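Board notes (copied after class):
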Amino acid sequence: MPGEFYLEGKLEKLNLQTLLELLLKLERSRQSGWKLMTASYVPVYEESHTVAYIFAGGKIDLSPMEAADVVDVRIRTRLEGGGSYKTTWEKSYSGVQPNDRKVIRLSAMPDNYGLEVSMRQTAGTLKNILGEFFDAKR
């Protein structure tokens, strides 16, 4: 019937509260905020969960960068419980960023066993960089 929801293969009707509890809830991560760069990779966002969730993406503001600065950003994931992280994306940014690249956007990615966004600054005066990250969980 329209407006009624059932679990597949069951005749039991779900009420709205139960349905909402089954949905993923998009939220701004508490890990968002200013991060002081270091010479070694340091996680700026890291999450794992007991059930599948979605890293819903993020934004990193590189506008504080100056001519001599080099900042590296990478994303690593774990493909099995207790496994080690594997790099899935990595990029280096040098100098003052052009207007259309002052804020970089990180794409959404489903995950379960662990996802890490890490950064380092390998040249120039260490900067504070603002990052905003989102995830969707139950």
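Comment from the instructor: The mean pLDDT is 89. Helices lie at 16-22.
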